[in-house]
Design goal:
Length: about 150
């Protein structure tokens, strides 16, 4: 039994699992790479997957000058993918943020994050410093959200 299946069994949420759905914040991929292949760095991954009432979103970055602009853009991308998956930030369970320079950028990031999440129930959140793949990126965001039955 996989660890998520075990956790979901304990929570009593394995009955009626919905089929796997994939979503992408990326532009359509060139022919032959598949609709969910993100091949920008020679790696294949999905930006978001919905399964069993959960939505997993990763790789959300934003373009802009400075941490505030990039944070707003990344969180707008999160909102767009959550909406496409049929949920919203009101159902966030976990948020993980990687900052290029936590000492320099944490307060700017947190200011925008607090404004963005103001009316949503608080999710668990971790924020760590990391060397990001692209020099211009100041942050990357990953979220897990619940997808409530309709």
């Amino acid at each position: 039994m996989c660890c998520w299946t075990g956790i979901l069994s304990v929570l009593g949420r394995t009955s009626g699992l919905q089929p796997l759905q994939r979503f992408s914040a990326n532009e359509p991929q060139p022919s032959g790479t598949g609709p969910y292949a993100n091949t920008a760095f020679g790696q294949r991954f999905s930006n978001a997957i919905s399964y069993g009432g959960l939505v997993f979103i990763t790789g959300m970055v934003g373009k802009g000058q400075g941490i505030r602009e990039q944070t707003k853009a990344a969180l707008n991308n999160v909102d767009a993918v959550l909406s496409q998956a049929g949920t919203s930030k009101d159902n966030l369970l976990e948020v993980t943020v990687w900052l290029r320079d936590i000492e320099k950028d944490y307060s700017g990031f947190d200011e925008i994050y607090q404004e963005w999440a103001r009316y949503a129930p608080p999710a668990t959140r971790a924020c760590v410093e990391a060397k990001l793949k692209v020099q211009e990126w100041l942050l990357e965001v990953r979220v897990i959200a619940a997808k409530l039955p309709s």
